[in-house]
Design goal:
Pfam families: AraC_binding, HTH_18. Keywords: Activator, DNA-binding, Repressor, Transcription, Transcription regulation. It comes from Acinetobacter gerneri DSM 14967 = CIP 107464 = MTCC 9824. 37% of the residues lie in helices and 23% in strands. The chain is of the alpha+beta class and 265 residues long. It folds into 2 domains: 143 residues, Jelly Rolls (Sandwich); 105 residues, Homeodomain-like (Arc Repressor Mutant, subunit A), CATH 1.10.10.60. Strands 1-3-8-5-6-12 form a 6-stranded mixed sheet. A 6-stranded antiparallel sheet has the order 2-9-4-7-10-11, covered by helices on one side. A hairpin with a 2-residue loop joins β5 and β6. The longest helix is centred in the C-terminal third of the chain and has 16 residues.
């Protein structure tokens, strides 16, 4: 590839929370760039929400991303690992399996109401003791709201094929890069047809579709900031905002500005 890459094996390992003190527990974490949460599982479900940056959670070779204002729900006893390519500030609501009966039974990205990010931001800005009655009320409200959240199927599959994996890792790091697929294939000593075949077999979709999903996920994170739609379009490699808006609307059934207004806290 044209730019230097680091293997995820070189990333800093961060300790996981395997012994959770309460049936319903909340914490906020700052994770440095190029860091990893090793694979683990526990009897608590997790609702993970990133305030800034995008946390990647890998489950059975599928990468789920958590760009604001989306959160990720992991049912109890699911083996998972986390990867932070850039610095990420995120929070986790841990829910013991005894309290998970009315929550989704499968992994999914949750599209919540604007009240959920608002409560999470309040808890972030005003840390409280676990025993504080206000804290207990707020996390119970969070749990109630999660019962009614919509589960989305948007995710980015991973690949076990080494050459395709190198391409995916490169696109993760440089989502604005618009190198044609035939050139990416040549750099990996493949034909474009071979690359297309590997993509369909390993990812269940074309590499172009995977690439667009990645741009959408990055765009959702950027739309939680003050960046203009035009600047976001340029940051994602579009020559103008019209092409970006058209792509985003095709995937999300709303324009970037409609998305921003609907989910801004």
């Amino acid at each position: 590839m044209k730019k230097n890459q680091r293997s995820s094996l070189d990333y800093q390992h961060i300790a996981t929370y395997d012994e959770i003190p309460e049936p319903l527990w909340f914490r906020v974490s700052d994770a440095p760039a190029e860091s990893i949460y090793p694979q683990h599982a526990h009897a608590w479900g997790e609702f993970i929400f990133a305030f800034n940056g995008v946390l990647e959670v890998n489950i059975e070779q599928i990468n789920y991303l958590t760009p604001p204002p989306y959160g990720l729900w992991l049912p109890p006893n699911i083996k998972h690992s986390g990867l932070n390519r850039t610095q990420v500030t995120h929070c986790t609501l841990y829910v013991h399996e005894d309290l998970c009966q009315n929550l989704p039974q499968h992994v999914g990205i949750l599209m919540t109401t604007p009240l959920v990010p608002a409560i999470l931001e309040h808890l972030r800005q005003h840390p409280m003791q676990d025993s504080d009655p206000e804290f207990k009320r707020l996390i119970q409200v969070l749990l109630d709201l999660l019962h009614h959240s919509e589960v989305l199927g948007s995710y980015l599959p991973s690949s076990k094929h080494p050459r395709l994996t190198k391409i995916l890792d490169y696109l993760y790091l440089y989502p604005a890069d618009n190198t044609p697929l035939k050139d990416l294939a040549v750099q990996m000593n493949m034909t474009e047809r071979t690359l297309a075949r590997y993509s369909q077999k390993e990812l269940g979709m074309s590499l172009n579709e995977w690439r667009q999903r990645l741009k959408v996920m990055n765009a959702m994170s950027m739309l939680s900031t003050e960046k203009t739609v035009e600047n976001i379009a340029l940051d994602l490699g579009y020559a103008n905002s019209s092409a970006f808006i058209s792509m985003f609307k095709r995937w999300m059934n709303m324009t970037p500005e409609q998305f921003r207004k609907m989910y801004r806290t």
